[in-house]
Amino acid sequence: MTARSDTDLFSGLGRLVVLVEDPDAALAFYRDVLGFRVLHDRTADGFRYVHVGVPGQDAVGLWLMTAGSGREAELIGRQCGGQPLLVLYTTDLDAVRAHLHGHGVRVWNEREDTDSRSLHLADLYGNVIVVAQLRRAAA
């Protein structure tokens, strides 16, 4: 039996849940606007399982989960209490901004920090997403 330390209990991050009203509309936004790939899209027992993720990271993604109760429906777009739902990294923030504007997505809070440039956007339900371009460390 291999000994494990307290710091290696898990081998990776899988899916984060994003509550949605309409999985088709949510899928269209994340796939067609943000460029996510469909990792899994199946229906079983009347429930649709839609998982999306960024290209090249198939083990990590978002589960676009239809709200199943009135309480869950109240949380759509607010499940993080106004804080960002996620941070996406890019190597070309200017191209991302132009792409988002081309799709009618409003961006705000554009900033430049010592180690990054970033902007905020919202998905179609109001979940805040940060896009950041990290600066390369001087060699």
Automatic annotation (TrEMBL):
SUPFAM superfamilies for this protein: Glyoxalase/Bleomycin resistance protein/Dihydroxybiphenyl dioxygenase
InterPro entries from the UniProt entry: Glyas_Bleomycin-R_OHBP_Dase (IPR029068), Glyas_Fos-R_dOase_dom (IPR004360), VOC_core (IPR037523)
Molecular-function GO terms, alphabetical: lyase activity
Coiled coil: none
Record domain VOC: where: 12-134
Keywords per UniProt: Lyase
Highest rank taxon of the organism: Bacteria
Pfam families xrefs: Glyoxalase
Protein name from the UniProt record: Lyase
Lineage: Bacteria, Bacillati, Actinomycetota, Actinomycetes, Kitasatosporales
